[in-house]
Write a structure and sequence with these properties.
It contains six helices and five strands, in the order ααβαβαβαβαβ. It is an alpha/beta fold. The chain has a single domain, classed as DsrEFH-like (Hypothetical Protein Ychn, Chain: A, 3-Layer(aba) Sandwich). 24% of the residues are buried.
């Protein structure tokens, strides 16, 4: 009887919490890297984190997103001094995502940005949702 009650409580709790990333796919962790400042040193550090995580896990064995918003927008502009490094991250399977709320506030268009990046409506919400899914959030 106790075992049955325990199982029911456990099942109810797991259903209420939703499946974390670890339960959904324990062999492929998720990492989201936040960039929200205008310091090129931070931009380089974020790209180093992406590269190091992919090297450690294997680029095909980790989901990784670089989410840029706020003052970090310069990192993803088409004329960014780090364009080649952004290109490398994309080529290695990382998703590089720009916040469209930031773009609107800064009057940027897709034409102003690196041509191969992706977009999210709100960078902060993307980070919150990934965190809720069990992803690790890193802010260099």
């Amino acid at each position: 009887m106790r075992r049955t009650i325990f199982r029911l409580v456990l099942a109810s709790t797991l259903l209420a919490l939703g499946p974390p990333m670890a339960l959904a796919n324990p062999t492929k962790p998720g990492v989201v890297v936040q960039v929200s400042d205008d310091d090129p040193k931070t931009w380089n550090q974020a790209l180093n984190v992406v590269k190091n995580v992919q090297a450690e896990y294997g680029k095909d064995k980790v989901n990784i997103e670089l989410v840029v918003f706020g003052h970090g927008s310069g990192m993803l502009k088409f004329d960014s001094p780090l364009g080649n490094r952004v290109e490398e991250a994309l080529g290695n399977g990382a998703q590089v995502l720009m916040c469209e709320n930031t773009m609107k506030g800064q009057r940027l268009t897709h034409a102003d940005m690196h041509p191969k990046i992706g977009y999210v409506k709100a960078g902060v919400i993307e980070i919150v949702e990934r965190s809720r899914q069990g992803w690790t959030v890193v802010r260099p």
